[in-house]
Amino acid sequence: MTDGIIKIDSGRARRFGFTSDKFDSSSYLWKQGDWIYISFIMSREAGHGYANELLNSIEDQNFRIFVPTPFAGMVHICEKRGMKLTSRGIGPDYVEGYESVGWKTYTEGTKPE
Asked: Long-range contacts for 87-90 (Cβ within 8 Å, ≥24 apart)?
């Protein structure tokens, strides 16, 4: 999969279940290396688990996840999943956000202590 924007309903998006029946059509993802950035997603029906399904699908395909400057609802999801608050360089700047720490995202295949 090439780096860059992942537009909703594209072939790359469908690979993750990132479709317009679950998310607003203005939603998008961004891929850079083995990272998927959840920059802007809006669920069509809050509380149905679509965001968790998306994050699970991304991790199941061995990508790491970073959620820069999340809205309150996404902060709750990230914290519930055990994601850690950190900062990452995005372009010339550093941005605070949540990073996946689950075993699925580690290339060595072991769960961190």
From this structure: 90/37
**pTM for the whole structure:** 0.80
Looking at residue 88, its amino acid is R
Q: What is the 3-state secondary structure (H, E, C) of 1-50?
A: CCCEEEECCCHHHHHHCCCCCCECCCCEEEEECCEEEEEECCECCCCCCH
- The DSSP H or E segment spanning 53 is helix 50-60
Q: What is the pLDDT of residues 71-90, one digit of tens each?
A: 888 888 888 888 888 877 77
Residue whose C-alpha is closest to residue 32's, from 74, 68, 71, 1 = 1
- Phi, psi angle pair for 87, to nearest 5°: -130, 145
Phi, psi (deg, nearest 5) at residue 83: -70, 150
Which pLDDT tens digit goes with each residue over 100-111?
A: 765 444 444 443
Instruction: Output the CA torsion sign for 49, 28, 101, 60.
Output: positive
Q: Would you say 35 and 66 are in contact if contact means Cβ atoms under 8 Å apart?
A: yes
